[in-house]
Amino acid sequence: MRARAAHVSRIGRNTFVVLLAGLFALAAHQGWGEDLAGLVEIQSGDLPVIISAPHGGTLEVPDVPPRKGEGMPKGARGFFAGRDTGAEELAHVVSAAIEHRFHRKPYAVVARSHRKFIDFNRPPNIAYEDPDAKPVYDAYHNALKEFCSQIHRRFGEGLLLDLHGQGSDRRKVFRGTQDGKTVSLLQQRFGDSAVTGSTSLLGLLKSQGWSVHPDPLDGKEQSGFRGGYIVSTYGKPDVGMDAIQLEFGMDYRTAAARAATADTLTEALVEYSVDYLNVLPAEAESRK
Question: In the CATH hierarchy, which top-level class contains the domain 10-277?
Fold first, then answer.
């Protein structure tokens, strides 16, 4: 493979850290070197929260042609190559807003490569077609696995937020938990109200003026936005995580809107974290 300079970006004031030592070894073995670190951004954290954004990247994967999807199923769980415009940038702003409010970083895994090369929200048999794309796909999911394990060891339970964009309603945000399956740990510990009540994450966002679905909160989730491979893989009691997919309409993802979106989501996470993760924001901790 031809060498390329590593792409480096920032989340607010903070640079995403590069991959774990084992992932660097994998990259070197595959001949990618530091290019791999530029295609998947990874940030270690100090909160039981992971921010994932698999579909917002724009970069080409070196020497990997775009996927064609021949013979693959289509639709919400099948082949699709469209990009979630603004989702990568929104993940950056959300991460910075959470750090500002809690004075601690969330974990984060964000794709920089375009979905037409790799779809990180699909199982491997659909996610990529060229074997040279496998190390990048593995880097994304190995990081999620490691971070889930760290959170389980350090905090007991945690929350993974998988950020996406949708084009069906620019004013709406859709919740995806496979109708509760990916937040079963939360339900076991606190009951259905933690998922569908006014103090649930979606309930808190609704109370701050967001247009959400389902509404009523205990309704069925929208077909196509019920939660994909990432939340179904990591939102399990044996992983120690709950996982929620959030599908943002464009009104929440534009450059002008991202700061307000991040602030509102962070405000909801403050209340959610106190109630369900036993984590206090920085100003509350300072009064203890």
Answer: alpha beta
